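Weekly modeling sync, notes
Attendees: S.R. (lead), two postdocs, one rotation student

Agenda item 3: backlog of single-chain predictions. S.R. asked that every request posted to the team notebook include the full sequence so nobody has to chase files. The rotation student volunteered to paste the first one in as an example of the format we agreed on. Action items at the bottom.

Example entry:
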Amino acid sequence: TINAPKFTAYIDTQPTVNWKLGMTLLAMGDRDRFDADANGNYSGAQGAVKSYELVNLTTSYQLGNTKLYGGIENVLNEDYYPGRSQSYTYTGYNLKGRGRAVNMGVNYTF
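Predicted structure, as returned to the notebook:
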């Protein structure tokens, strides 16, 4: 398999001793290296891949023994199929990527 080009960048910062922020950018490039058959179908993992970009944000804050955290996945609510879902022609692999998702939580250390 020849994968589509992929770029990932991370930025993490700590504005205060207790507060952390992070951002991730994932950019998947196009891949159209293989020819489809006469019916327009690809075989195996040779399907074309269309590009997409994802931005994720994370944060956490430490309060003594308690850590509050949260994040937003797919901040821009990109409508996409992950690279593997696009390239695999096998049944069951063609699933859309996750839309925007928010997570929050609390950790307490005893």
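Discussion: group reviewed the output briefly. Strands lie at 6-13, 19-28, 52-63, 66-73, 101-108.
Action items: rotation student to repeat for the remaining queue; S.R. to check formatting next week.
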